[in-house]
Structures are given as structure tokens and as C-alpha cells.
Amino acid sequence: MNAPDLDPDLLKAFLAVAEHRSFTRAAHLLNRTQSAVSLQVRRLEERLGTKLFQRDRAGVLPTAAGNELRNYARRILALNAEAVGALRARKTEAEVRLGVMDDYGTIVIPPLLASFAQNHPLVRVEIETGLTAMMPARLGEAYDLVIAMHPQGRGTGDLLRREQAVWAAASSYRTATQAPLAMALYPSGCLFRQWAAEALDAAGRPWRLAYVSRTLAAVEQIAAAGLAVTVVKAGTMPARLRRLSGRDGFPPLPAADIRLHRARNLSRAGALLADHLQRGISEPAALC
After folding, report:
1. Which one is the CATH code of 162-256: 1.20.1050.10, 3.40.190.10, 3.30.70.120, 3.40.50.300?
2. How confident is the model at residue 288 (pLDDT cuts 50, 70, 90)?
3. What is the pLDDT of residues 64-83, one digit of tens each?
4. N or C: which terminal CB in the chain sees fewer CB atoms within 10 Å?
5. In 23-146, which ranges are continuous DSSP H helix?
6. Which CATH code for domain 8-90?
7. Residue 63 and residue 52 in contact, taking contact as beta carbons nearer than 8 Å
8. Which class is domain 93-160+257-286?
9. Has residue 2 got a pLDDT over 70?
10. In a 3-state reduction of DSSP, which class is residue 52?
11. What is the C-alpha separation between 210 and 182, in angstroms, rounded?
């Protein structure tokens, strides 16, 4: 004998009555007549071959079978909604504008976009990399999502992870022979440039801004060639550079918070991408 089907519409009517203990309130919630809701519950009882409600002075109460069905009904309806949402999202052609730091845009984000595209192939992502200090102010105008760097403990948006700023240079670089110290940094407005200048000045170490570039690739290339020292995130440390520390004569640097900013009235595609990036980037164990 085939098992009876559990029609989602019948389950919705059943749950509405079970949650509100009233056919009248359930009918109002579902925008149906009371007789229509009663008929749906009766059909469900007939399919299952058991009574789901009983009446007493407190109102309409689920039977033991009704209470058992409530948990299954919630799970079935939740899975149904998840499946419908996922399949609809696949058919939704949309564009999401993402602003992000250069290193994340070239190292962290591409694998996440690849996995996102598997489930949402029609969502186009327009990505812009660069200094993120002013990007959150342009949410809605130029960006739908921004992944930006902030001083530790400051900034709005969702905290994704914490990144330690570190000094970096070529493995063959000898800092003791450099006076003043040659630095390869990013343009004015970059948090790492500010922190490097403040730390070196506070330590009384002479330095000069020898190279400036907006791109990680150029700064990394200069540092890898042994021409200068730079500052990078420990989490995206280029393999061909080595980390410098106090043993090399460098003062400690602060940590930065990486935060996700969302535009108001974010599209469904934007919300899906935001949730995907948040799951992919967040590292709770690293937030210390």
C-alpha cells in the first residue's frame, strides 16, 4: 500500500490551527474561510487515518498524533521553501556589484565566486578592487556589497575575520643594510600605510616611501625583487615573501577587522552572494 502524500497546503492549514489553537484565527492568518481550513484539516486526517485535533475549554488542541506531526510539518515546509528559493535563484538573472581589497579580490574571493556560480550561474558579479576606506559610503550608488578593512574593534557591517598586519620582504632582503629603510606601500588613505608610518616613526627608525602602487601585484613584485619592505595581511601573505618581526628590528603592527557591508534594499541575488561570502570568509577561531 502506497504511503499517503503530505500536501504542503494541507500541512500549512494544519500548522496554522496547531500554532494558534483556533480554526478561526488560522483561517484569518491564511486568508481563507474557516470552512476551507476545516476541510483541509479533515482531508489530512483522512489521508493519515488518525485524528489530529481535539477540543476542550482551552480551545483546539493537537492530539498525540498531531503533536508528532507538527515537527515533521515544520521540517517539510522549511525544506520545501528552501528548495523553491534555491531553484528560483538559479533562474534569476541579476548583477551584483562588489567592492573589495586588492589582495582579497585576487586571492580569497575568486574561489568563492566559482562555488557561488555553480548554484547561481545567471548572477553576474562585477568586482572592483582597491582601497576600501571610502567604499562603504558608496553602497547603493556604486556597490551592492563591500568587503572593507577597519581598525580592530571599529567599523560597522558584519565581522568576517581578523587579519594581522605584518612586515614582509624578499627572503634575501637584509634590513640592517638599509638606511633609511625603503618602503613599498599603497596610496594615501590605506590603513596599512598609516600604520607602517606611525610604527616606524614611533620606533625612531628612519624610512622613506620608495614605491607607491594601488595594486598588490606591483607592491609584491617590488618587495620580492629585494627593493623594499612592505606591509601585508598575514592571511594573504605572498609565498615568495618572508615575514619580518622584532628580531629583524621591526615594531609590532595592529590587527584589522575585515567586515562585510550590505546596501539597503539589497536584491535577492545580492543577499545570496553576501551570505555565501560570509560563510566562506568567516573564521570564528581566528576572531581573537
Report:
1. 3.40.190.10
2. very low
3. 998 899 889 889 988 888 78
4. N
5. 23-30, 34-48, 64-91, 102-103, 109-119
6. 1.10.10.10
7. yes
8. alpha beta
9. no
10. coil
11. 5
